[in-house]
Amino acid sequence: MSINKTLVTFTILSLVFFCSTAFGDAGKPDFERGKALINQGDFEGAMQAFAAAARADRANPEYMQNYSLVRQVVMIRSALEREKAPERWEYYARALHTYYVSESLYEEALELARQLHQRVDSAGSAALLAETQLAMNKNAEAVELLSDLAADKTTTVTESLEGIALARLGKKAEALKHAELAKLGDDDGPGVVYCVARLQAATGNVSRAAGLLIRCFEQVPPSQLDGFKDHARATPEFAGMAGTREFQQALKTESKVQESRCSGGSSCASCPMRGNCGKQQAP
Q1: In the predicted model, is pLDDT for residue 276 greater than 50?
Q2: pLDDT (tens digit per residue) in 174-217
Q3: Axis-axis angle for helices 156-168, 123-135 (nearest 10)
Q4: Alpha-carbon distance 19 to 14, whole Å?
Q5: What does the mean pLDDT of the chain come to?
Q6: Considering the domain boundaries, does residue 48 fall inside one?
Q7: Distance (Å, rounded) from C-alpha 255 to C-alpha 243?
Q8: Which tens digit of pLDDT belongs to each residue from 224-237?
Q9: How far, in Å, CA of 15 to CA of 38, rounded?
Q10: Apex CA 184: angle with CA 210 and CA 125, to 5°?
Q11: Do residues 71 and 78 touch, judged by C-beta distance below 8 A?
Q12: Which of 30, 42, 229, 268 has its CA 20 to 30 A from that of 12?
C-alpha cells in the first residue's frame, strides 16, 4: 500500500473513531445536568435537560426513559396541588413518595409523608412516615410518632418499626418487647415479613431474622427480588449479621412466585401478546 493510501485510510479510521465517540456521548452533558438538577429538586429543569439529551442521542434509551419518568413526576406534582378526591390524592402522593425515596430525596419524601399522614391518619400513613424518618436516622421522631398511635392503628409493621427505632436508640429491652408483639400471620406479605426480620436482626436474633428473610424472598416476584436483597445488604439492622453464614445463605434464596418473563407481570390474562407469547418465549 502506498504512503498516500495509508494516510487516507488512517484519516478515515480516525474520523470514524472520532464521530462514534463524539456522537455516542452527545447527550451525556445534558443527561448529567438533568441528574444534578434532580438532586437540587428542580424537576422542570431536569425534564428539559433529559429532553435535550434524548434529542442529542436518540439511540440511547436511558435518556428517553429518564425524560419520561421525570415528566410523570412533574405531572403528579402538579396534580397533587389540584386533586380534591382523597383516594386519588393519596395514590399520587404514595407514587411520588416512592420516586423521592428511590432518588434519595429524603427531605421531599419526609414533607410529603407528613402531609399524607396528616390527611389520612392511618396505620399505613404512620408506617410510611416512620420509614422515612428511619431512613433519615430520625429515630426519636419515629418513636414519638408510633408510640402515640391509637390501639386500632397499631399493626405488626408499626410495632416492628417502633422496635427498630428503639434498638437504634440503644433501648434494646424496649425493642425486645415490640419484637414479642410483632406477630406474623400465615397470610402476611413479603413487606410485612421483611419488616419483622429487620426487628429480629436489630434485637440480635440472627437465626430468626435469617429465616424470615428466606420467607420474604420466596414471596417476592422475581423482578423485584434483587431490589429487596440490595435493600437488605444496605439496611443497618442487618449489618451486624452480614458476615454470618445464615445471612449469606438467605441472600441465595430464589423466588417461588410465578411471573411472566416478558413483562414481569403475575398474569398473562390481559397481555395483548398472550396468543403468541408461549411460542416466542419457549426455550
Answers
A1: no
A2: 999 999 999 999 999 999 999 999 999 999 999 999 999 999 99
A3: 20
A4: 9
A5: 87
A6: yes
A7: 22
A8: 999 999 999 999 99
A9: 36
A10: 105
A11: no
A12: 30
